[in-house]
Design goal:
Layout (H helix, E strand, L loop, with lengths): L1 H17 L5 H8 L1 H4 L6 H4 L15 H9 L1 E7 L2 E7 L8 H13 L10 H10 L9 H7 L9 E10 L15 E4 L16 E11 L3 E10 L1 E6 L2 E6 L11 E7 L2 E11 L5 E8 L6 E2 L23 E4 L9 E5 L4 E6 L4 E7 L5 H6 L13 E3 L10 E8 L5 E7 L2 E9 L4 E9 L5 E4 L10 E4 L5 E6 L2
Antiparallel strand pairs: 1-2, 3-4, 3-5, 5-10, 6-9, 6-11, 7-8, 7-10, 11-12, 13-14, 14-15, 15-16, 16-17, 18-19, 19-20, 20-21, 21-24, 22-23
The protein binds heme C.
């Protein structure tokens, strides 16, 4: 236990040493992107919840800070989608400056825009929840920091749910509905229906127009939907298909100030369900929402996260009880390594799949996350560097390839890894800043030409690891 905390503190402090605490983007990439995605949309194609456009980042910033400090587990809804996973705590591993830098990056990346958070907010939040020992649940957190209410122009909103399989919007007046619900929050939402496939919904309400005039509506739906105001159809998307701009519909209608009856019809055949309705006064720019507000995504920052052809991926495991505390790297070309920050050496190398991260996230605290492959070779399993050696963190080159940095007295050891020809990794070792030579064991024979290497000061040595 003690060793875990010691090791984790060591690692986080060294990050700050190598990076600047202010570099929120890089700190985010190292600490959050494995789960939330470099693009903030949720890693593994949205298995993890998005931070881009998340309502959990709006309003009181202590909500997001609390999540980073303590972690979060159990059911939660983010941007209208349900999740039930676990996020590990970061309070032991990160100082206030690091958390502030990450939060401020997340608050303003990918189209998000929330006010800047001062470092004091982190220390105050830390103190306020000092006694809490378990991760948050969404419900607990919302009692303290409720989500800001979306203001809505819909009054007396009701929904009727219908069961049936259709390929076009049916005549709902001829079908018996399952139930009628009053939607207190005035937002048109599919998550409240609890339905998955083969159903329809009709919402009815009063649209409270702020003034007389012409109004413009925008609709997209998966599958079909229409918007009717004052018994006049304003927009419609019919048939089967996704909710995308090329299946959208816009329309204009004149409204009088005050109550105008609105009816929204919707059906879902199978797979994804979605509806998005926006409105604005004709001639103005700012859209308002009848469905849950979605934020515009900044497409320019769309960097792929999952293992790709030319980018190395990183796996950082914050989960307690893990030994050794390793940082994993999955290289393009199918070789992977795990570096131990307590033993100051790469410990494992394996070919094939990298790591099944999903497994660990859903079973918090279930021991080590094993590499996905059976062909794991041990490079080292104890510390061999001199006693005064200290881990100083790592840096990444533009392709995500790591250089691990260790200080040994007045010398610095740099240990870089990058993919070589298929089935190989190239390791470059350099010791600088002193006179001493350094003996480095290279692991099991057969992977490299020799089983150890002697580093001469200020001279780089390349070693090729070959693994089938
Ligand atoms: C090990 C994977 C993992 C890491 C690392 C991780 N998260 Fe999470 N995060 C999750 C999961 C899973 C949830 C949802 C938990 C649930 O289902 O209750 C979540 C939820 C959240 C939420 C609330 C929901 C949302 O999507 O807005 C925020 C905010 C958040 N994380 C921020 C961060 C930040 C900032 C970091 C980096 C310091 C981070 N997370 C690191 C897995 C992770």
């Amino acid at each position: 236990m003690i060793r875990y905390y010691f090791a984790s503190t060591l690692i986080s402090l060294s990050f700050v040493g190598v990076l600047h605490a202010q570099d929120g983007e890089q700190l985010y990439t190292l600490n959050c992107s494995a789960c939330h995605g470099v693009d903030g949309k949720g890693a593994n194609n949205g298995v993890f919840p998005p931070l881009a456009g998340s309502e959990w980042l709006e309003g009181n910033p202590k909500r997001a800070v609390s999540i980073v400090l303590k972690g979060l587990e159990g059911p939660i809804e983010v941007s209208g989608k349900p999740y039930n996973l676990a996020m590990p705590p970061h309070e032991a591993a990160m100082d206030d400056g690091t958390i502030a830098a990450i939060i401020n990056y997340v608050f303003n990346a990918w189209g998000n825009s929330s006010p800047k958070v001062a470092k004091d907010v982190i220390s105050v939040t830390r103190a306020e929840h000092e006694d809490r020992e378990s991760p948050w649940t969404a419900a607990d957190l919302l009692k303290i920091y409720p989500l800001p209410k979306q203001k809505t122009v819909l009054k007396d909103l009701t929904s009727r749910v219908y069961k049936g399989q259709w390929e076009k919007i049916p005549d709902f007046d001829k079908i018996q509905s399952e139930n009628v619900e009053e939607e207190q929050n005035g937002i048109v939402s599919l998550s409240l229906t609890g339905m998955k496939d083969n159903f329809g919904v009709v919402w009815e309400a009063s649209f409270v127009a702020p003034e007389d005039g012409s109004y413009e509506f925008y609709l997209q739906a998966d599958d079909g939907a229409r918007v009717i105001l004052n018994s006049k159809m304003v927009c419609e998307v019919d048939g089967l298909g996704p909710a995308t701009p090329d299946r959208s519909s816009t329309g204009k209608t004149d409204l009088t100030k005050g109550y105008n009856p609105i009816r929204i019809e919707y059906f879902e055949n199978n797979r994804n369900q979605d509806i998005e309705i926006r409105w604005k006064k004709a001639g103005t720019k700012q859209w308002d929402w009848l469905t849950k507000k979605k934020k515009a995504q900044n497409k320019a920052t769309n960097i792929p996260l999952t293992p790709s052809k030319d980018k190395t991926v990183i796996y950082r495991n914050f989960i307690e009880g893990t030994s050794p505390r390793a940082i994993g790297f999955g290289f393009p070309g199918g070789l992977n390594i795990a570096y131990s920050a307590d033993h100051l050496t790469p410990e494992l190398i394996w070919s094939g799949d990298f790591i099944d991260a999903g497994r660990h996230w859903t079973n918090r605290g279930q021991g080590n996350q094993p590499p996905s492959s059976k062909k794991v070779v041990t490079l080292a399993n104890s510390r061999y560097l001199p006693k005064e050696a200290r881990f100083k963190g790592y840096s990444l080159d533009p392709n995500g390839n790591p250089t691990f940095i260790v200080a040994i007295g007045n010398q610095t050891l740099r240990d870089s890894w990058k993919p070589g020809e298929t089935g190989t990794l190239i390791r470059t070792l350099t010791v600088s800043g002193g006179e001493s030579t350094l003996e480095i064991p290279l692991g099991e024979t057969g992977l490299t030409e020799s089983s150890s290497v002697t580093l001469l000061p200020d001279k780089s040595t390349d070693i090729t690891y070959t693994l089938k």
